[in-house]
């Protein structure tokens, strides 16, 4: 079976967020997909099966299946448009989060994702302890916990306690601050998914973009994920949706042997 590893939200390899992509004729047993995911040991492995003009798409982390993943969706679209159906410039995926469409526009892959509704939650000492003593100015809950800081340096230099992050509410923890050269910077931590730090988190920006769009009074943002690998996202809020664009770099094309 063919598998592609693609670095999303970057224009060169060894940066952005790597995702493994398997485009299949039919579904494998779920335990087999989970074994492939664990063997890859990336933050996400995506599995896609064509159905008419659309593709069914599922995402697995080393901790199990997840309901929304931006970088692996971008990577899957890149794999399909680059290797599987080279004439396509748009593909729609049927997922646990509904239909998601990705369109290729020049070097960018533009995704249309749902925005999470953010509810303010109290800032607690437990949050600060999980983030190396850094006390957020504000905190919000969607699917994930979003913590807002006033300084980009705090976000960039933060060292988290993985077990204490695991004890916080929300599936992932996102930390964000205003950026010096971009609209906002962020980092994403996902120990509940057995991922210490997600290098560039698309679904995280479905939390981050609504906050900064409201805060800055502008709908179009350039966001930078300040992980060690780093990645840039071009985002626009449109009501309860987020248009999120990024580049992609193909790292590997391989055959995997599972029989």
Automatic annotation (TrEMBL):
Report the superkingdom from the record: Bacteria
Isomerase in keyword set:
yes
Q: Which residues form the active site?
A: 44
Q: Which GO terms describe its molecular function?
A: isomerase activity
Q: Decide whether keyword Cell inner membrane is in the record.
A: no
Query: Which InterPro entries does the record cross-reference, listed alphabetically?
Result: Phenazine_PhzF-like
- Write out the GO cellular component annotations: cytoplasm
* This protein's UniProt keywords: Isomerase
Q: Which family does it belong to?
A: Belongs to the PhzF family.
From the Swiss-Prot or TrEMBL record, give the protein name: PhzF family phenazine biosynthesis protein
Q: Which organism is it from?
A: Vescimonas fastidiosa
